Amino acid sequence: MCPLNAEGRCQVYTHRPMICRLHGIPHVLQLPGSPRQQSPGCDEFHRRCGRSADLLLDRTPLYNQLAKLEFECRQALGLQRKIRMTIAEMLLDDGVAP
Questions:
Q1: Structural domain that includes position 66
Q2: If both were cysteines, with which of 5, 27, 41, 89 could 57 make a disulfide (CB 3.0 to 4.6 Å apart)?
């Protein structure tokens, strides 16, 4: 369970990150050097939107852009070490990695 969940409700719902907004949506993703990943989505998505093989969001271009932005940000801030925190942990810790 996400650390920002309290009593079954998201504490940052109206400002939640994109990864949370995309959770459960049928998608494909092609990471460099990896086989194509595909997820059928969750039952709640299909209950609300129906089932269709054509409903697949390609997350690849989005993640490529996010990786580029992260690289540029890390360079500008001089960050070289890996940060092993979830987005929720970063929000709870004001983005400061231990």
A1: 5-92
A2: 27
